[in-house]
Amino acid sequence: xxxxxxxxxxxxxxxxxxxxxxxxxxxxxxxxxxxxxxxxxxxxxxxxxxxxxxxxxxxxxxxxxxxxxxxxxxxxxxxxxxxxxxxxxxxxxxxxxxxxxxxxxxxxxxxxxxxxxxxxxxxxxxxxxxxxxxxxxxxxxxxxxxxxxxxxxxxxxxx
Length: 159
Known about the structure:
Elements: E1 15-16, H1 18-27, E2 31-36, E3 42-47, E4 50-52, E5 55-60, H2 65-72, E6 75-87, E7 92-106, H3 110-124, H4 132-139, E8 144-158
Antiparallel strand pairs: 1-8, 2-3, 2-6, 4-5, 5-8, 6-7, 7-8
C-alpha cells in the first residue's frame, strides 16, 4: 500500500501493506471513530466495529450525539490498534495499527442490517451465535446500524 489521499506517514519504515493494515483492523477490540459535532467541534468515540469487505459496520441506538454529528458531517477517521505490547527492557511498544478515512451513513436495508449485525456478533460474541436469529427477531427494529465506506487506509507496525 502506497499513500492514500490525504494520509501520509512520517515513519515510512514502519508502514504495513494494505492487507496487513486490514488485519490490524480485524484484530482490534474496538475502533475509535473521530468526527465533527454539528457545531464543528471535534469528537471521538470507541465503537465495536466489524468489517465486510472494505466496509466497516457498527451498531448503536437510533438517536444520540454521534448520530447527529454523522448526519451533519459524515466524513470520519477511524483508529484501530490490532496489538500493543510493551517491551519493558527497551522502553518501547510492539504494535500494529491502522488509520482509515471514509464516509459514514445509516443502513436502512434490513438484509444489510442483518449481515452487519451477524459480522459484529461473530467477531465479539461467537459463542452466542446459536441465539443470533432470536435476538434479531426481538431487537432489529430498534437497533441502529451504520456503515463506513472506507476511502483510505494506512497501517503501521513495530516489531
